Amino acid sequence: MPEIRVTPLGAGQDVGRSCILVSIGGKNVMLDCGMHMGFNDDRRFPDFSYITRNGRLTDFLDCVIISHFHLDHCGALPYFSEMVGYDGPIYMTHPTQAICPILLEDYRKIAVDKKGEANFFTSQMIKDCMKKVVAVHLHQTVQVDDELEIKAYYAGHVLGAAMFQIKVGSESVVYTGDYNMTPDRHLGAAWIDKCRPNLLITESTYATTIRDSKRCRERDFLKKVHEAVERGGKVLIPVFALGRAQELCILLETFWERMNLKAPIYFSTGLTEKANHYYKLFITWTNQKIRKTFVQRNMFEFKHIKAFDRAFADNPGPMVVFATPGMLHAGQSLQIFRKWAGNEKNMVIMPGYCVQGTVGHKILSGQRKLEMEGRQVLEVKMQVEYMSFSAHADAKGIMQLVGQAEPESVLLVHGEAKKMEFLKQKIEQEFRVSCYMPANGETVTLPTSPSIPVGISLGLLKREMAQGLLPDAKKPRLLHGTLIMKDSNFRLVSSEQALKELGLAEHQLRFTCRVHLHDPRKEQETAVRVYSHLKSVLKEHCVQHLPDGSVTVESILIQAAAHSEDPGTKVLLVSWTYQDEELGSHLTSLLKKGLPQAAS
Amino acid sequence: MKLYCLSGHPTLPCNVLKFKSTTIMLDCGLDMTSTLNFLPLPLVQSPRLSNLPGWSLKDGNAFLDKELKECSGHVFVDSVPEFCLPETELIDLSTVDVILISNYHCMMALPYITEHTGFTGTVYATEPTVQIGRLLMEELVNFIERVPKAQSASLWKNKDIQRLLPSPLKDAVEVSTWRRCYTMQEVNSALSKIQLVGYSQKIELFGAVQVTPLSSGYALGSSNWIIQSHYEKVSYVSGSSLLTTHPQPMDQASLKNSDVLVLTGLTQIPTANPDGMVGEFCSNLALTVRNGGNVLVPCYPSGVIYDLLECLYQYIDSAGLSNIPFYFISPVANSSLEFSQIFAEWLCHNKQTKVYLPEPPFPHAELIQTNKLKHYPSLHGDFSSDFRQPCVVFTGHPSLRFGDVVHFMELWGKSSLNTVIFTEPDFSYLEALAPYQPLAMKCIYCPIDTRLNFIQVSKLLKEVQPLHVVCPEQYTQPPPAQSHRMDLMIDCQPPAMSYRRAEVLALPFKRRYEKIEIMPELADSLVPMEIKPGISLATVSAVLHTKDNKHVLQPPPRPTQPTGGKKRKRASDDIPDCKVLKPLLSGSIPVEQFVQALEKHGFSDIKVEDTAKGHIVLLQEAETLIQIEEDSTHIICDNDEMLRVRLRDLVLKFLQKF
Question: Which Gene3D superfamilies match (chain A) (predicted)?
C-alpha cells in the first residue's frame, strides 16, 4: 500500500529548528533546516543522524526545500550540507537565496566571534552551501527528477517566503513554512489554489490566537511609542534585520511624518542599508500598493530613520531604536536592553514571538529579575510591552488556508503542543479531515490510494462515448477494453486492437442449438410466429425478420427447418457467438417453453 | 487541429490554434509599418511639413490634395496614423478561450482584440511582459494623443481610388481594416484581463490542455509556449535569442519531442551580426560627438536600449565622452529604467548575482546617479532648460512618425554634423526617413536584432527534433532582396509548412490516445496475465466517468438481482446500463488434447473427422458436433443447456480471453 510518511526532526510541537522529513511516492524530501534560538548546545540543530545512520545523506534525500530566510528555518543549512555532508539540490526562492547567506554569516559571527564557539561552520562553508542552491520562481513547476516535482506559492510572512507543493504522480503534500493570510504594509497575503493535497503541513504559531484588527494593533503600538517619547523615554524595539523591521519602519516613518515628530529613530547598523536594498530590488515580492507606486516613491527609502551608533545609546533625551536580534538573546539589542532596563521611563516593545530560553521570553512571561552572564542580576524597571506583529497566520488564517487548499488531512508543526491540540480539534470538526501533531522524532504514516494513469485509445474512448442514444457526456457508461502493460507503459485499448497489436487472431466460438417445436405449419410460418413472439417478449432488443425467412435478435440468428422424420415438428436453429452468450442462452430457454398459441 | 493565421507579419504574429476543445490565440502582434505611409506628427507646428504640396493625379485632378501630400517624390497620407490589425473575420474571436503572449512587442494589438470582438477569455503573460508592454502602449497612446490632429483621411482608402495611387500606397494591404490607436482606457481594460504566469508554470485549460511558458532569451520576461495534452505537444517559438544579453537564457530542452513546432519571430536582419552592430553604433556615436555634432537614436523605451546603455557605460570613459550628456526622452523613460532593475528573477545569471550583493543589475543606475544619463518625460519642461549640445538623445518612436523624435529630426536634419543612428530593426530606415528628405544629417543603419538567425534555427531544430515545423511563408524562401541566399531560409525535413495572412492550416496531427485514471479499487481487481515476455494484459470492464474533460474508470457496480422477475427502471442516473460484455477469445484448440479432455469429463463415443480446414469432433451419443478450425470453434448441439455449458467451458480452457 503506498503511503506518505512525515517525521519532524524539529518544529514538532515546538517553535524553532524547523526540519521535517517527508517520504512520498518513494521520494524523500527535507523541508527546512533550521536552528533553535533557545539552545546553545547540540539541541540547536536537528539530529540529522536520524535520517540515515551509516549512508550518505545525498543518497537518501532527493532534495531539500527552504521556505524562507529566518534562521529557525535555514540556520542549520551549512552545518547540514558541509559538516554532515549533503550534495543534492537545495531549493529556495530568489530573495531567500539572496538574503539567507547574509543572515547565516551574521549568525556565525555572533556564535564564533562573540561567543567563541569552536567547531562551528565557517564563511567558506556558507559559500559552498549556497552553491548547491537552485532558485525557484513562484508557481514554477520544478522537476527535481522525472517523478518528483515541486511548486512554490506566495506565503507573505517575510520577503521571499514561500509555501511548497511536493508532488509525485497524483500524490502531493503542501508545506506552508511560515505564512500570513492578511496583507500588511509591505507584503501581500499568502495564497494557494485548490490543489487538494493528500496532506497539508502547516505552521501553527498562533493556533489559538484570533488577532484583533491590524489597524487597532498599529494604533496601539504608535500610541505607546508616542507616549514614551513624549515623556522623554527611550524606546527599544528588538527586531530581526529583515522582515518585521521594514514593516515597523514604514509604520513609524509615516507616523513621524504625519505628526511632525522630531525624536530620532535609529536602526542598528550593519544590515539595515543592505536590507532595504534587497527590498527595493525584490519589490515584485512586496504588496500590490508598494509595487504600483515604487516608480514615484520607493517605500524603502526612509527619511526619518537613521543608522545607529553604539555611542548613541547614552545620548540624553528620547529616541526610538530598532536593534537586532529580535528575541533579545544576543547582540546589540541585548546590549541596549541592559543599558536601558533600569529606567522606568524607558520602554521595550517586543513585536514578535520569543522562543523559550531567550531573555525576550523571560521578560514577556513577567520575570523582572534576570540572571545574566557572570551571575549578575539585572533588574528590569522599564516598561515591557508585547505586540503581535509577527506575520504569522492566526487561527482564523490557518483555517482559511485549509479551506483554500482542501487537503485530505492536516499536520501541525511550528507551534506549542497545548495550542495545537485546540486547533487540531477545530480543524477535525470543521473540515472533517484527520489532523496530526507529531512530536520531534515521531512518524506519522498516511496510507494513500493513488489512481493509476493510463493511456486510453481515442477510438475506444469515443466508441464508448458514442454508445447510447443520448450522447450525454456526464452520464457514466460501461467500458470494456484490454489493458496492455509493457514496462511502465500502460495502455487501454479495445480488445480487437489488443489482439491486432499482439499479432493474435481472434478465435470465434459459436454455438448452434437445435430447439424442437411442435408445429405442423410450414417453416416460414413457424418463423413468423417466432418473430412475433420474440418481438412481443423482447421489447428491449432489436428483433428483425429478414427477407430470407430467418429471424435475428441483435446478432443472434434463428432459422426454422423441417424435422427430417417428424413433419409435425420444426427445428429452430439458434446460433450465436460467445460474445452474445447471455442473450443466446436466454433465447434458447425462452424458445424451449414453446410458442403461445396463435391468437387467431 | 487547426491553425488560423491572422497576421502576415512574421515577427508580429497573431495565430489561433484549435486544439482538442480549446481555442488558443498565440500572440497579438500589431503591424505598425502601416504608419510609414503617413506624415509625421510634429510636436510643434512644422512649417516644412504643413507647406508640403498636395498630391494630384497625372491628369491634374487634385481632389485628394487635402489627404495626400508629396515630399521628395513620395506620397504620404496627411492624417492620424493608423495601424494594420490582425485579421478579425477569419474566425469568430469571441470564441477564443485564452491568449498567450510571448513578449511585450507581440501584445500591442491586445486592446483591439479584447475590447472589440466580444472576447471573454483570459490572457496569460509574464510580469515583465505586462509591465513593459504597458509602458510601450502608454508611450504610443501618449505620442498620438498629445498632438491631436483634426484631419482623418479616408477618401484614399476607397478601392477604386487606391488603385490610382503611387506605390507603396497602391500596394498597401487591407487598408479598410486599418485603425487608429486605442485609448488608455482600452489599454487598462485589456491589461486587466491578463493573468500573470511564471516560467515553467503549468497552467491547466479546462482540464483538456496544459500550457507552459518557457524562457525565450529575447527580452525581459519573453517566453515561448508549450501547449500540450498528455499525448500531443505543440511548441510555439516566438522571438527567441541565443545571445547573452540581459534576459534569462533560452530554455531549449523543454521544446524537445514536439509534434508540431510553430516558429515565428526570427531576426529581421539575418545578415547583420548584433555584436558588430553595437561596435559600429559606439564608434559612429563617438565620431559624431567629437566633431561637435548631435546623435539621435530613435528607439523603443525598453529592450535593446538597456544593452546600449550598458555598452556606453563601459565605453564612455575610454572614448573620452564623459562630458557629453545622454538624454533619454519618453513619457515612460523613468518607469522603464526603474522597472528594469526590479526583475532580478528574469535576468541572466550575471545580473542576478549582482542583485544578490545587493546592487542594481543594470549599470544605468550609476549613469543616472552620476548625472551622465538624464531622463525626461518629454522635451517640454525640464529638458528645455537642461538641454546642452552636443549630446546624444534616445527617444521614440522608431518609425519617426510620432513622438519626440519627430522634433529632433526637424531640428537636426539640416546639419551634416549630426547623425541619426537606427538600431531598431522593425522599420525600413529609408522609408522612415522619406518624409524628412532632403536631409543633410548623416544616417547610420546599425540594426540590432538579437532574435534567432537561420544558422541558429537549423541548429535548434536539429536539437529539439520536432515532427513538423510550421512557419510564416517568408521563412521558406530567401528574402526578396537576396534571392540567391539559399542559406537565409528554413531548411528542415520534412519541409516546413508555411502560412500567410488569412490562411487556415490543418496541422498534421493524429491524436490516438487520451489519459484516463484507473481508480485504485478497480486496479486491485484487475488480473494481469503475461502474454509475451514483458507484456501483460488485463481485461477491463469498468464504468467510465467523464467530468471537466477528465476521464476516470471506476469498478462496475455489482449486478443487482432482478427482483420479482421485472426490470425496474432505476431512478439514479449514476448506474449505467450494466450489460457485461464477454471478452474476445484468442488461441487455437489442439484436437487431441481436446478429445482427451472430453474423455476425462465422461464423454464417450467420440469420433474425429478431418476436414479441409480442421476437424470435426462428433459426440454421437449426444448428437453433438464440434467443428474446430484454426480460428473458430462451432458447437452444434441439441437444446441441452447443461451439456452446452460443459462443452463451452471445456473449449474456453484452451483459449485466452481479452
Answer: 3.40.50.10890, Ribonuclease Z/Hydroxyacylglutathione hydrolase-like (3.60.15.10)
